[in-house]
Specification:
This protein is mainly alpha-helical. It contains four helices and no strands. Helix 2 (24-38) crosses helix 4. The protein is globular.
Length: 70
């Protein structure tokens, strides 16, 4: 379905929502750490592809976390 938000994006935004109380840099590191520990490499790759495609609707903290993970 065109325009559908990938499940990884929804999950990443949920993780980011749980870290908004932290300073941005700390939150991005925590999000990256969580995804690095608990996400399957295929999930991370789909998230990377979504970010590369423009990251429409993705929390900026998630985009920052992806930069750290790469």
């Amino acid at each position: 379905m065109a325009g559908a938000v990938p499940p990884e994006s929804r999950m990443a935004n949920d993780i980011a929502a749980n870290h908004v109380h932290l300073p941005s840099e700390v939150a991005a590191e925590a999000i990256a750490g969580h995804m690095g520990r608990f996400w399957d490499p295929r999930m991370r790759n789909r998230l990377y592809e979504f970010v590369d495609a423009g990251a429409d609707g993705l929390d900026p903290l998630v985009v920052a976390a992806v930069r750290l993970m790469r």
